[in-house]
TrEMBL record:
Pfam families found in the cross-reference section: Phage_TAC_6
Organism superkingdom: Bacteria
Name of this chain's protein: Phage tail assembly chaperone protein, TAC
InterPro entries cross-referenced by the UniProt entry: GTA_rcc01693, Phage_TAC_6
Lineage: Bacteria, Pseudomonadati, Pseudomonadota, Alphaproteobacteria, Rhodobacterales
Amino acid sequence: MDWPAMMRFGLGVLRMTPRDFWEMTPREFLAASEPYVGEGAAPMGRAELEALRARFPDVTREADG
């Protein structure tokens, strides 16, 4: 977690007191910030993962020797 960015957002944008910020759980913080930043991205599905794996395959290198 990017605590400095979260602190800037919580204290600056949400105008929270430091005490209120540190008493929140990460889940509560995300819920409070959602109206400003929107919901997080949906998790990637199996088909999307397979498409990415096909597009960007892992490349293995043979050991020098």
